[in-house]
Amino acid sequence: MTKKLPGKAQSKSAAKSPARSPGKPPGNPGGRSTYRHGDLRRALLEAGIALARAGGPEAIVLREATRQAGVVPNAAYRHFASRQDLLEAVRSAALSGLAKSMEAELAKVHRSKTPQDAARASLRAVGAGYLRFALTETGLFRTAFATPELLGFTGDPARKGDSGLDPFELLSAALDKFLETGLLPPERRPAAEFLAWSAVHGFAMLIIDGPLHTLPRGNLDAIGARVIAMVEKGL
After folding, report:
1. How many angstroms separate the CA atoms of 62 and 80, rounded?
2. How far is CA 79 from each of CA 45, 82, 224, 226, rounded to the nearest angstrom?
3. Residue 221, Cβ neighbours under 10 Å: how many?
4. What is the CA radius of gyration of the chain?
5. 27 located within any domain
6. Range of 137's domain?
7. Residue 155 belongs to a domain with what CATH number?
8. How many angstroms separate the Cα of 94 from the Cα of each of 22, 84, 119?
C-alpha cells in the first residue's frame, strides 16, 4: 500500500476541523473573544463606547469598532450604516451615563429637608453630578455634546437615566421645584435651563480644554461648588 504522507494527513485533518467562530483576531488583545448570536450590535456599541471613553468622539471609527468586536468590517453595516450612526448611538449612551451620574447625586438629597431646602439641594445635586461625569468620563462627556442637537426634545429612551429623564430634563425638573417652592419667580422660569447649563458646562470645559486643567482635583471641586452656588443664588 502507498503510505500517506504526514503533511497530507494534517491537511485532511485540518479540513475536517470545524470553522472558527467569529472571535478575537490574532494580535488584538483589546477585542472581544466572542459575542453571542444576535448581540453584534451591542458588541459594536460597547466597542464604540470604549473608543469614546479613551479618545472622545474623534476616536470613534467604525472599522476599529469592528476590529475590537472581532468581526470583519462589512458585518457592521447590518447594524450601523455609517460612522455617524455609530457616533449617534455612542452619544445616546454617553447622555444616559451623564443622566445616571446626576441621578446618583440626587439620590443623596435628604428627604427630611423642607421643600425649599430640598429644591436647593436637588439643583446642587444636578450640577454636581454633571461636573463629576465631566471630570471622570471626559471622553464620553465630549462625545455627549459632539453634535449641535438640542437635548431634551428627542424623546429617545437610550439617552435617559433610570428615572426616564435625560440630563436636560433632570435640570428642568430641578428648576420646576424652584418654581413650585417659590424660590424662582414665574417670570424668570422660562429658559432658566440655559442660564444654569451655560455656567456649569462652561466651567467644565475650562477644566477639560482650558487653563484650569492643571488645578488639583480638590480645588476644582471647591470652585465647582461655588459655581453651582452662584447659579442657585442668581436664579
Report:
1. 8
2. 10, 9, 40, 45
3. 15
4. 24
5. no
6. 95-234
7. 1.10.357
8. 28, 15, 26
Distance separating alpha carbons of residues 44 and 64, to the nearest angstrom? 9
Determine, yes or no, domain membership for 8: no
* Model confidence band, residue 147 (pLDDT cutoffs 50, 70, 90): confident
Q: Are 140 and 97 in contact (CB under 8 A)?
A: yes
Closest CA to 201 of 142, 116, 118, 136: 142
Q: Is residue 148 part of a domain?
A: yes
DSSP letter for 81, please: S
Q: What is the pLDDT of residues 53-91, one digit of tens each?
A: 999 999 999 999 999 999 888 888 889 999 999 999 999
pTM: 0.82
DSSP calls for 109-153: S-TTS-HHHHHHHHHHHHHHHHHHHHHHSHHHHHHHTSS-PPTTS
SS3 content of the chain, % helix, strand, coil (to 5): 65, 0, 35
Tally of domains in the chain: 1
